[in-house]
Design goal:
The protein is mainly alpha-helical. It has a domain of 122 residues. It contains six helices and two strands. The chain has a two-stranded antiparallel ribbon with strand order 1-2. A hairpin with an 8-residue loop joins β1 and β2. α2 runs parallel beside α6 and α3 packs antiparallel against α4.
Length: 187
């Protein structure tokens, strides 16, 4: 029902000039159903406007996290070189199951790069006296943080680039095992 008077956009004629607040911009809306509610309330979001680049970035970040977990699980074993391929395979499967081929490619590349970057960190920790279980748990906890950060727009791509660069830097600067008093012992 419409009331008499000026439209919202029109200025009302008064002695003092009063500016009305601007209307919020029109945005495309994705309506999602919230499961578990009787009324199935619809939520409003702007994910559709972001397009595929957001979902590919999320799956790339999740692939990085899965690669880190694969490096943590297989660290210190003969099969540790298979960690990047295991991370890529799990990332691809995750992308195919929950999305499409673009997201699967992002997850696979993220898994490969994530495991390749994390392997050097895990090898260095184990080589300097860390235990497999504690190192694996700490690295897996870090992978949970990386997975959570992947949902920030654009951060999944950054994770996929930064983690292998970090691993390469660790490889170049990698120190040797701490000698302790063994360096003073004479044979």
């Amino acid at each position: 029902m419409r009331r008499a008077g000026p439209d919202r956009q029109a200025e009302k004629k008064t002695r003092r000039f009063r500016r009305l607040p601007p209307d919020p911009p029109e945005r495309p809306v994705i309506e999602l159903l919230v499961p578990g509610r009787r009324s199935a309330k619809r939520l409003r979001t702007t994910l559709r406007k972001m397009g595929d680049w957001y979902s590919v970035g999320v799956f790339a970040g999740l692939g990085v996290a899965l690669g880190i977990v694969a490096a943590a699980v297989l660290a210190g074993r003969r099969m540790s070189l298979a960690a990047p391929f295991l991370g890529a395979a799990v990332g691809i499967v995750l992308g195919i199951v929950f999305a499409s081929a673009d997201e699967a490619a992002g997850g696979g590349v993220g898994g490969l790069l994530g495991a390749a970057g994390a392997l050097e960190l895990v090898r260095g920790a184990l080589g300097r006296g860390g235990t497999r279980v504690a190192t694996g748990l700490l690295v897996a906890l870090g992978a949970v943080l990386v997975a959570a950060l992947a949902f920030i727009p654009g951060v999944g791509y950054v994770e996929a680039v930064v983690l292998p660069a970090f691993g390469a830097r660790l490889r170049r600067r990698g120190g040797k095992r701490y000698a302790g008093l063994r360096s003073l012992a004479r044979d």
